[in-house]
Amino acid sequence: SVNSSYWVLVALASLLYMIMYILMFISAVVLRKKAPHVPRVYKVPALWLIASLGIIGSSFGCIISFFPPSQIDTGDWIILEIFFIGTTVIFCSVPFLIFAARKPHWHKKT
């Protein structure tokens, strides 16, 4: 039905956004560790705590997106999970494929 299709697309978009947020929290911690001397306009206090809470919350959002609401008939549960995992892997692998297929003149000259 239209409702279940719409829910699947919204849940998939939410899952991809939560993965992006997890990567951003990890990146903030890594950059703070690798480049502490870089001048910043604002330095987040207790970054480890805030990033940990953000990663936990985003991970919870990822997990919740795999469970459809009981009011919407989404069909077979196994097919839905395979679709979620498959499309997530495909969408997350696209940047790596673009990076692997880059042309030599795209390289930054330093």
Gist?
This protein is 68% helix and 0% strand. The protein has 110 residues and is mainly α.
Overall geometry: flat
Mean pLDDT value: 90
Q: Largest sheet, if any? A: none
Question: Rg from C-alpha positions?
Answer: 19 Å
Distance between the termini: 54 Å
Low-confidence stretches: none
Proportion of strand residues: under 5%
Helix-strand category: mainly alpha
Give the helix tally: 3
Q: Which percent range fits the helix content?
A: 55-70%
Order of helices and strands: HHH
- Find the count of extended strands (DSSP E, 2+ residues): 0
Describe it.
Helices cover 68% and strands 0% of the residues. It is an all-alpha fold and 110 residues long. Helix 1 (2-34) runs antiparallel to helix 2 (47-64) and helix 1 crosses helix 3 (77-100). The longest helix has 33 residues, at 2-34. The radius of gyration is 19 Å and the shape is flat. It starts with a helix and ends in a 10-residue tail after the last helix. The relative contact order is 0.15.
